Structures are given as structure tokens and as C-alpha cells.
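User: Structure please.
Assistant: Input sequence and predicted structure:
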Amino acid sequence: MNLFATLEDLPFLSACYIGRIPGVQLPTDRQEALKAQIPFFKKTVKEILPAARSFFCAQEVHGTEIAIITGSAPQEDLVPNVDGMITDEPGIVLGITFADCAPVWIIDPQRKVVALVHSGRRGTEEGIVPRAIQLLQTKFASHPKNLIVTIGPCIRPPCYEVDFAKTIREQAAQAGVHEIRDKEICTACDSEKYYSYRREKGQTGHMLGLVMIR
């Protein structure tokens, strides 16, 4: 298993992503592949985040709907019809799957609230990251200048004709975010570490971005 930590400088947070799972054969249908991976994801979350109370994974539709997750939310393997989630409660694990689209962590270290969104070409064009920033402001009194936006691995030029990661950075800056992190990793450039929907012509698995307040 390829496991990568991120945001390690924030002690109140556990954040990471799971890359390609070596040697695992998955169904060619995208939704069936995701269903096949969910038990592995749940097992892995328990192993790497033993303090977790619950695990919520977004059932993405390439839109801009974002759910606010609390301890009273019904536990489901997949939260339907959302591409982002926000929580300020310790022990709740948020999960976003991706295989070329970008996982984006939006963290407020002052308020100790976290958002995790799935932003590909369509979601970026429709502004899911600015929407998440707006929700952090209106629902949690976050100030954009205090936020840290981190863009995970995603497909990028020249492997893809649209640089939506660049657009995400621009959107975050326009929203008032001062700290934007991006290691500029391209999922299509490393078949050993990452799945890529475009490189593998749709016959691929999903990676998983995770975040939890400790």
C-alpha cells in the first residue's frame, strides 16, 4: 500500500492519502471498483487512525455539494451526492476518493475545523473550493487569511489539457487565502504510486484522501 502523509506540521490534525494498492485486481466499472475498495478503505482507516470514531466517504458526482458532518450524522459507507465534507469534531474521519481529480484539504488551524473536497475539471469550473471556503466563513467563522489550502496529486499538463490545479490555486488566492500548498504531483506520470483514470482509460481504482481532527 502506498501511504503518504500530508500537513504533518499541524499537530491537531491527521491527514494523509492512500495511493495505488499494488497487486490488487479491480472491476473495470468505476462504481463497482469503488464499492470493491470500500472495505479495504474502512479497514485501513481503523489501522492508521485508531482514535477514529467514525468514517465518512463522499459519493462524488463532480458537483459542488458539501456536507457538514457531525457526531449525530448517520454512519454510512458513502455520503450520497456530495463532493466535499466539513467537520470541527475530533474523531470524525472524512474521506475523498480520486483518480485524476484533486483532493483538496482546507484547514483552519485557529478554529480547528477541516474541509476535504474533490475538485476535478468540472468541480473546479463550478467553484467547489470557493464554496467550501465560503461555508467555513459562514458556518464556522473562519477567516480566509487563516486557512491553509493543500492540493493533492491530480492529473496535470502535459498529461491533461486543462490545468485545473492552477485554477484551484487562483480561486483560493482570490478568496483571500494566503497559504496555498501544492507539490505539483501528476497522477498520470507515476503508475507505481497512483491510479489515473485518463492514463488507464477508465479501468482503474481510486485513491483515498483522509483527514481527522485528533
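The mean pLDDT is 92.
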